[in-house]
Amino acid sequence: MSTVVQPCARCGARWAVQGAPQHWCPRCRGVLLSPAPIDAPPERRNYRWVARRPDQRARRPGSGGARATGTPSYAEMPRWGLRDTPPAAAAARRLPLARFEVRSSGLLVAAAVAFGVAALAELLRYSILLHNRTRLIDPLVLALSDYFVIAAAAVALVGGLFAALGALGWLIAMRERAFGARGGRDPRPVWALALGCLVPVVNLVWPGVFLIETLGPRPEPHALRAVRIWWAGWVGGALLAAVAALWHLADSLQAKADGVLAAMYTDLAAAGMAVLTLWVMRLMEGRDLRGRERIAHRWVVAVDPAQPVIAPVRPASANALPQGAEGAVRARDEAGTAGTGAQQDTAQRAVVDIREYEEVVAK
């Protein structure tokens, strides 16, 4: 008689029935199926084995079978092992004011043009004032002049603000690259750079300090000189703007007219400062004002050799001729006037010997 067993529905172990049937598998605590002979045919079993994937759900009743597919194949030889996924490239750190930084050159050029137009508007207004000393001015011309001055000044101020943001973004990115190339990080936070460059009066000192720090402990002399020139121009332009603002506080007509000239000079200084800022930025990037790669010129000192390589050529004198050479020259002269062919040949050979001797002496 065959042994009666109870299969486990979880681990598949078969346990012999001894006495009363059990309900739980002693190994995995799974459910034990009803007892059946170990060699019972499938039609006499009260269970059947179904192989399923762990994540496969039970099919819905009435659903059709899987569609027939082709023979499974591999595009390449299967390889077993750990899958070493290459690490994803670290995303580039997005710096503040990045949008303004990429357009910093264009913003500075636009600001220079805007301040130039504002200076032209002030010059036209001053010309109208000079013309008004002897003649009356049409109110329409005066109104157009006022609108032109106000509009040009407003556009110049907006352009200057955007140019300042672009220059600040460039400074942040340039310091990030410079300190990264030296194996470190910028010790100053972004908010400190922003306050040092945008707050009035404070921005007369700190921008130059930030630029010199960017150059490193051993700055290039040309770049350091350019930064110092920019710093002096920046402070001078600020002082000129302060003088022009104070000039407008006067009440006399002449002072107001002079204030127009002061405003014109201030606009010209601002335009020049924008161009100077662009020059310093591109110089620190290794380019010239037009944006081309700057080529370093190296001068080499060339000196004459201590001793001349070729001795100077000195003509042989009559005293330096070999013995018999002077007579040969005289014989050639006499043979040229009257003599036989043999005498002329002899004299010619003597002259050739004299020339060879002169060449040896020259060498």
Automatic annotation (TrEMBL):
<keyword id="KW-1133">Transmembrane helix</keyword>
<feature type="region of interest" description="Disordered">
    <location>
        <begin position="50"/>
        <end position="77"/>
    </location>
</feature>
<feature type="transmembrane region" description="Helical">
    <location>
        <begin position="190"/>
        <end position="209"/>
    </location>
</feature>
<protein>
    <submittedName>
        <fullName>DUF4328 domain-containing protein</fullName>
    </submittedName>
</protein>
<keyword id="KW-0472">Membrane</keyword>
<feature type="region of interest" description="Disordered">
    <location>
        <begin position="323"/>
        <end position="348"/>
    </location>
</feature>
<keyword id="KW-0812">Transmembrane</keyword>
<dbReference type="InterPro" id="IPR025565">
    <property type="entry name" value="DUF4328"/>
</dbReference>
<feature type="transmembrane region" description="Helical">
    <location>
        <begin position="229"/>
        <end position="250"/>
    </location>
</feature>
<dbReference type="Pfam" id="PF14219">
    <property type="entry name" value="DUF4328"/>
</dbReference>
<feature type="domain" description="DUF4328">
    <location>
        <begin position="133"/>
        <end position="284"/>
    </location>
</feature>
<feature type="transmembrane region" description="Helical">
    <location>
        <begin position="262"/>
        <end position="281"/>
    </location>
</feature>
<feature type="transmembrane region" description="Helical">
    <location>
        <begin position="148"/>
        <end position="170"/>
    </location>
</feature>
<feature type="transmembrane region" description="Helical">
    <location>
        <begin position="107"/>
        <end position="128"/>
    </location>
</feature>
